[in-house]
Amino acid sequence: MSAVFEKPNLLQRAAPMLQGFDGPLAFAVFLLATAGMLTMYSSGFDHGTRFADHGRNMLIAGAVMFVVAQVPPQRLMLLAIPLYTVGVALLIAVAVFGITKKGAKRWINVGVVIQPSEIMKIAMPLMLAWWFQKREGQLRPLDFVVGVAILALPVGLIMKQPDLGTSLLVMAAGLSVIFFAGLSWKLIVPPVLLAGVGIGFLVIFGDSLCAEGVRWGILHDYQQQRVCTLLDPTRDPLGKGFHIIQGMIAIGSGGLFGKGFMQGTQTHLEFIPERTTDFIFAAFGEEFGLLGGILLILAFLFLILRGLAIALEATTLFARLLAGAMTMIFFTYTFVNMGMVSGILPVVGVPLPFISYGGTAMVTLGMALGILMSISKARRLGQT
């Protein structure tokens, strides 16, 4: 007696790969991707092929997310040391014989021109999560010192390029792992208070510190100018302060409900600099107003809270630390971008996730989402 077996169709073959995907996280990404495509069409329809390229970048990021989501967290842990080692080696190579553009040495040619600092956004939290996983149950103060050293090496190399924006993102991802690993509040509060005092001092004595001829040894000249411009954009309204002033004008002119889709005058008359990249939130605020801005922030908040929930429910310390760090990457991107466009933070090159144009950043975000999906998938499949 012969048995007849039906050949599985494409959907049946794909079902195991789709099983366990986190629905709420995917929904948050869908909302933000839709907002990104709408905003890019409005701000970039007359800007070459930006809209089409943005869609292509999203598809690439989606493919990266899908592939990474198939890798179990325990296999991701095996990548920690190799990826971190390669990333640091490339950063050292950049410092020695990297490519300089616009006064910054951030790129290297390895057959193709790459920016190694982008690797560290993922490699850093992977490495630190691996480090603390290996010491689970026997953590000592020295382990946190080693963790800080692991973080400080690549951050220092990135700041030297100089690249303040990327160094802040890498630092935030690394510090979040150290914090979630159980760093004592006694060690957290003093630096926070010191930073608060420093900011207050800067605000009070800003005029003297930003006077002509005064130089701060701890920052590059262009970084000092960004801080001084933040304190008083009218110091150079047609130069250094132009970005902040025009961003605030665009957001303010949007009012409560905005001027309407594709009706932003500041955007389409090209008063907003970098309107498809770093300052796209200003274009969004002008056309969709305060209400649209609040809805966008709520969408990001939903994604961040879902990421933290995945971290909380993860089955291993490595997965919890890694998921927390990936979530903090999204928080840092969003907070820094919206803050600089709104005039409450210095202008640094940090895009708004899913909204701003940028291929490298989109792929990095796709990897971060894939890691979150992988951790959520491992927990769900483990429960079933």
What does this protein structure show overall?
This protein is an all-alpha fold. Helices cover 69% and strands 3% of the residues. It is built from 16 helices and three strands. It has helices at residues 10-18, 23-44, 50-69, 73-78, 80-97, 117-134, 141-159, 164-180, 185-204, 206-209, 221-231, 242-253, 265-268, 280-313, 317-342, 359-383; strands spanning 99-101, 104-109, 113-114. It has a three-stranded antiparallel beta sheet with strand order 1-2-3, with helices on one face. Helix 2 (23-44) runs antiparallel to helix 14 (280-313), helix 3 (50-69) runs parallel beside helix 16 and helix 12 (242-253) crosses helix 14 (280-313). The longest helix is centred in the C-terminal third of the chain and has 34 residues, at 280-313. The chain is globular. The model has no long low-confidence stretch (mean pLDDT 86).
How are the elements arranged and paired?
Layout: H1 10-18, H2 23-44, H3 50-69, H4 73-78, H5 80-97, E1 99-101, E2 104-109, E3 113-114, H6 117-134, H7 141-159, H8 164-180, H9 185-204, H10 206-209, H11 221-231, H12 242-253, H13 265-268, H14 280-313, H15 317-342, H16 359-383
Antiparallel strand pairs: 1-2, 2-3
